[in-house]
Amino acid sequence: MAEANTGDRMEKIVSLCKRRGFIFQSSEIYGGINGFWDYGPLGTELKRNIRDYWWHTMTRQREDVAGLDATIIMHPQIWKASGHVDTFSDPMVDCKTCKGRFRADQTAEIPCPQKPSKMVSACHGEKTAPRAFNLMFQTCVGPVQDDSAIAYLRPETAQAIFAQFKNILETSRQKVPFGIAQVGKAFRNEVTPRNFTFRSREFEQMELEFFIRPDEAVEAIAGHLASAADIGQCQTALGNDQTDWGWEAWHKYWVEERIRFYESIGLPRQTLVEYWQKPEELAHYARATVDILYKFPFSKRDAQGELMGEELEGIAARSDFDLSQHQRSSGKSMTVFDEELKAAWPKLEPAKQAELKERYYQNRLQYLSKTGEAPDKAEKLAREDAEALTKGYYLPHVIEPSAGADRLALALICNAYSEDQAPDEKGKLETRVVLRFHPRIAPIKVAVFPLLKNKPELVKKAREVRDLLRPWMNVFYDEAGAIGRRYRRQDEIGTPFGVTIDFDTLGEKGPELKDTVTLRDRDTMQQERVKISELLPLLLGRIR
Length: 544
Description:
- This protein is of the alpha+beta class and 544 residues long.
- It has three domains: 1-69 and 161-329 and 397-429, BirA Bifunctional Protein, domain 2 (2-Layer Sandwich); 335-394, no CATH class; 444-543, Anticodon-binding domain (Rossmann fold).
- The chain contains 17 helices and 25 strands.
- The strands form eight sheets. The chain has a seven-stranded mixed beta sheet, with helices on both faces. The chain has a five-stranded mixed beta sheet with strand order 22-21-23-24-25, with helices on both faces. The chain has a three-stranded antiparallel beta sheet with strand order 5-4-8.
- Helix 7 runs antiparallel to helix 12 (350-370) and helix 12 runs antiparallel to helix 13.
């Protein structure tokens, strides 16, 4: 869409979200609260479908992922160990003229208070020097509000996974490589929330921490690491052997898996950007990070005028940093014992043993040195870790695909929004607003209509069809207004199928059409006659 129209398109989307019950501003009757949004009836269903399908693909369709549902408030030492207390901050400035407060790197544009889909120029008054602003929401636990009671609302769901790693490993009967998945609320006190729901202060994450062997253990067991050519095939099914997969192979595998997930719910690959972070952009613990971007209408444009995209998900190779940090901070071991590694090590040539042991030692020494350990202690601990490797013990490394449910909901709405021309009841063309959701994530799967509401026999049959479908999918029943208008209402909220019960259903025009209904497709507006007895399996096949 042309650049001049992207703002208009976003305004239409924001208006539709409120008008049709997808998203409302939180506390709107009191003037709203910036950075917080409520999901209405349709938005609730959309977001639930996103979460459920993510969970289904991440855990129930796999044998190597277990689930966790952790508390929002955890021991504050977790956030000290993870680095959030000391480093989780944005640069903030104040304007001496308008008294506004902005992120130092975003003073050119800020969200418009009246229209959250628009960005406006910030005040050009004199700004204070940038200062760090910690993004965590602080609270107190218990009746006494002093320093000993300080806690935080979690800014991410990942750290609970690391803190509970050993409990889940021991109770789920998993072994490395395996993953732990979690869906839940997170909170970040953003200096400048913006772009509708894209950057909010309360949001929902869908995160997987996939724990893998360090490369030295992989090489000891398999005799080699997967080559660069092999890595290109890492998107193959998990039925294949991954014994020789190091962190690069697993990282590439998860990048491709996540893109496939987005395609499976209706985001075409051409709307996505696979952005590999440059070395200077990486977190200090990351070996590689890929951001999957979606081309939102509000995304910036490159020199050629193409949308550059905004982040939906990051897939990071985080080394063994997280488990190492919690092991150091808590004093509790996070190492695992690998029977295959213990059995493989004595079979290696002495030179190979020495090479792998030295590599592992250097990697652990590098980590310990970065954390500020004294050189002598860092060397001692790294030697102990390297010696433990020879006996089958190591700290797992992790690949982290981390996605935002709210951002994905917004991307799906933006991608689904469409306008076309369709005839009304009199055959006159009119503009039709359509949300072309993939049936898997559409809030309502099918709408059921009696042709006329003043014909009891039609209404009775329509309600029977509704009750037939309702246990299996979200069904909307509508008998108010002309049938064409009812179709338009469902098109606008993204319902992929409509079922109309008419006089043919009752057999008034011949027995061959008795107990058949008209099934209408949202996107093509084509209609077909379907037997009621065949309707449920037909719809189930199309919405899954």
